[in-house]
Every structure is written in C-alpha cells, then in structure tokens.
Design brief:
Parvalbumin, Recoverin, domain 1, mainly alpha, single chain
Amino acid sequence: DSFDYRTFFVKVGLKSKSNQVHQVGQVFHFLDKDLNGFIEEEELIIFLKDFSASARDLTDAETEALLAAGDSDGDNKMGLDGETALIKM
C-alpha cells in the first residue's frame, strides 16, 4: 500500500483549508460519479484512475484509510459540507 492521500493532496495543490475549499469542492464533484452528493467506497477504489488513466486502483486498505479520513459522521461515505474531513486534510 504505497498510496498516501495526504501526500497526494499536496502534490495536486490541495494544501490548506482556507484557500483551497473551492478546489476541494471541484475534486469532490469530480469523484462523485453518481452525483448523489457523497463519495462512497466504490468511487474511491478508482480514485487514482480519475487523475491518470495509467494509474492503479487503490487497495482495500488504502480505500478504507481514505474513506475513514473523509467520513465525518461514520456512515461510510464522504459528504461535502463545512465539517467534512476531506476539506480538513
């Protein structure tokens, strides 16, 4: 499991909450494939492929870690609101 979401977000320019909220929202909506307002496990598995067609799927452990980091209410999905951990990363 070589994927580290914190390093990834820094590399794509999402470094701080204060000036990056708009970009986080854009990334969120890009990843929310079914447009239901949440990012679920199935959407996270192909997370890296959304940024590069030659990228690999996330492993189960990587997917679980990313989901846990962005799941602010324990429902096993990430929502986009002022309290979501995805914005706090």
